[in-house]
Amino acid sequence: DFSTRVTYKGNDEIGSLATAINNLSSTLERYQTNRNEFFANITHELKTPLTYIKGYTQALKKGLYQSEEEKNNYLMIIENETTQMNNLMDDLMDLSKIEEGKLNLHMEDIDLIEVIDMVINKVKIKANQKGIDVVFNSPSHGALINADGQRMEQIFTNLLENATRYTEQGTIQVTIINELQGIKISIVDTGIGIAEEDLPYLFDRFYRVDKSRSRSNGGTGLGLSIVKKLVEIHDGTIEVQSTLGKGTTFILYFPIDLNE
Ligand code: ADP
C-alpha cells in the first residue's frame, strides 16, 4: 500500500528523509494507478471485438440473416474484428518490448526518402480513394541517416495512416529537409484537426479523441505512443501542432552523428 505517508515535518535530515519517502510513495501510487488503468484499457479493447465476434457468430449459427448479402456482412464484421485484435496484439508486443528496453534496433545507413516513398505508395491507394492528394517534397541529394529502416517505416506508416484516417478532403504533404545537424520531416494534413485541450494527451497510451472513428478505421489508440517511443530511441523528437477543423502537423527531427 503506497498511500501511507510519513507525517514527520521538520527542517532536519529526518524531515528531508520523510519528504523523500512521501514523494516516492506518490510516484509509486501514480505508477500503480497507471498500471491498473492500462490493464483495464487492454481488457476493454479486447472485450469489444470479442463481443462482436461472439454476437455475429451466434447470429450466423442460428441463421439470423435475411439475405446472402447480410450474411456476408456479418462475416466481414467478424473478419474486421479479428484484424482489430491482431493490430492490438502487435502494438502491445511492440510497447512492452520498447518499455523493457528489449527492442533490438538494426541500425544501418538508410535514405529516408526511399523509406517514406515506400510508405506513401502504401497509403496512397486509401488516400486517393477518399479523394486526398499525397504530396512529397524531398531534397534532391537524399536524406541519409543511420537508423533502423523497419522502425522508420513503422513510424511513418503510423503517421501517414493517421493523416489519411483523420482527413476528409484536401492534401497530405510530406516534406523532408536536410539541416546542418539533422533531418527534419513534416507531415501536414488538412484533416479534422485536434482541439487544444486534447493535444497534451495525444501521445498517451489508448488516448483517442474520437473513439468510434479510430476503431472503425482499425486504430488501436496505441499508434502515437509507439511512434513517440520509436522516435526517442533514435534520439529524435516529435511535435504536434493542430487547429480544430483545419488540420494537423507533425514535425520530426532526427540528429545526424557528424563524427561517423
Ligand atoms: P489511433 O489508433 O486511435 O489512431 P493513435 O495513437 O495513432 O491512435 O492516435 C491517437 C488519437 O489522436 C487518434 O485516436 C485521433 O483522435 C488523434 N489523431 C492522430 N492523428 C491525427 C491526425 N492526423 N488528425 C487528427 N487527429 C489525429
Automatic annotation (TrEMBL):
Locations listed in the record: Cell membrane
Domain of life from the UniProt record: Bacteria
Boundaries of the shown chain within the full protein: 206 to 465 of 465
UniProt EC number: 2.7.13.3
Keyword RNA-binding recorded: no
Membrane topology reported for the UniProt record: Multi-pass membrane protein
Annotated ranges, domain HAMP: 1-33
One Gene Ontology term of the molecular function aspect: ATP binding
UniProt keyword terms in alphabetical order: ATP-binding, Cell membrane, Kinase, Membrane, Nucleotide-binding, Phosphoprotein, Transferase, Transmembrane, Transmembrane helix, Two-component regulatory system
Name listed for the protein in its UniProt record: histidine kinase
Major enzyme class: transferase
Record organism: Aquibacillus rhizosphaerae
Catalytically driven reaction(s): ATP + protein L-histidine = ADP + protein N-phospho-L-histidine
Extent of the signal sequence: none
Domain Histidine kinase: 41-258
